[in-house]
Amino acid sequence: MTTIHRTDTSLFGQWWWTVDRWTVFALAAIIGVGAVMLLAASPPVAERIGLEPLHFVKRQMLLLPVAIAVVFFVSLQPPRVIRRLALALFSVSVILLALTFVMGAEIKGARRWISLPGMSIQPSEFVKPTFAVLTAWLLAQGKASARFPGGLISVTAFAVIVAMLLKQPDLGMAVVVGAVWFVQIFLAGLPILLVVVLGALGLTGLFGAYMLLPHVTSRINRFLDPAAGDSYQIDRSIEAFANGGLFGRGPGEGTIKNWLPDAHADFVFAVAGEELGLIACLFIVMLFAVVVVRSVLRVTSEQSLFVILAAAGLATQLGLQAIVNMASSLHLMPTKGMTLPFISYGGSSMLALALGTGMLLALTRRRFGGIEP
User: Fold this and answer.
1) CB 269 within 8 A of CB 278
2) Confidence grade of residue 91 (pLDDT, cut at 50, 70, 90)
3) Which residue spans traverse the membrane (predicted)?
4) Which helix (H) or strand (E) holds 113?
């Protein structure tokens, strides 16, 4: 077995001794669980829609090495490169997001995807991590120089992004982006009165979505009263957790996935509940908690406001996305089509998450006793 010494000056050696290894181990475990669950959950879904059993497995496994390479490459970069990379990719993502209204493929009544030869891209997935880093830079620059309108630019960019997401419509994505942005402006030292005002505006916006968007109204009504509409998927999801018990039926031995339409994506946590059991599900929750908590702890002594806000935003985004997916599967909140990071099937989601976690690892790296410059 090869040992990596602290004196190792190779690229990997420098990375290994400066990155947060607990976070790396947790991410590797999450990716491993994702591979197992994809093999278990996706074949029945593929067969139901007339594809070969391993169709989704092959597509995801082709992208997995690319995602791992993205995590490693991006995590090598210093914060200044992360900032520039986020700005460039955010600009491209916003352009692609706007193009969804012109050339986007309509799926289940929403235009969120752009079809390219051999693949489809969901631009909003890439907007999430890049906007978090961009907002961190704008707020940090606004604090550093009173003449730089960082806060105003951030508010404007946020309003434009949310408006575009709601037009698709994708309320869930808009809520995640809004929650991350709110956390960042709160940490940046926003006056408490404005925090209350913005919180009230957010709640007002959610109420407006409930009143004006039929699909939101339906989902919330079904959450409050299952008899108010079709609750087939969530009923099967709860049944899967009940069948799994403490230790599960074993990988590949579940049956609910044979009837659960989105077993490989939005409801993969339910498949994990049936096949791996409660203990394993709690372990998955712990893995995400390790990534979020370790990332936050790594920047508690950081002097750069940009690094603090960017790392906090990216960690919040990852944790919130995981919470939304798992809570939806457990009927703790209205169902929302959002992937479980690195576990659900989804190419755009995996690559965007790889970008986000790579930036998170880069921002929390240490060198010579301090955060890397």
Assistant:
1) no
2) very high
3) 22-41, 62-79, 85-105, 148-166, 173-203, 276-297, 304-323, 343-363
4) strand 110-116
Q: Are 343 and 333 in contact (CB under 8 A)?
A: no
What DSSP letter does each residue of 19-54 carry, written as one string? Answer: S-HHHHHHHHHHHHHHHHHHHHHHHHHHHHTTS-TT
Place of tokens 């946590």: 269
Q: Is 298 exposed, middle or buried (0-12, 13-18, 19+ CB in 10 A)?
A: buried
pTM of the predicted structure, to 2 decimals: 0.91
The mean pLDDT value for 95-115 works out to: 79
Q: What are the structure tokens assigned to 155, written together?
A: 């508010």
Considering 53-62, 97-106, 283-292, 336-345, the range whose residues carry the highest mean pLDDT is: 283-292
CB 274, CB 254: distance < 8 Å: yes
Q: Is 359 helix (H, G, I), strand (E, B) or coil?
A: helix
H or E stretch covering 367: strand 366-367
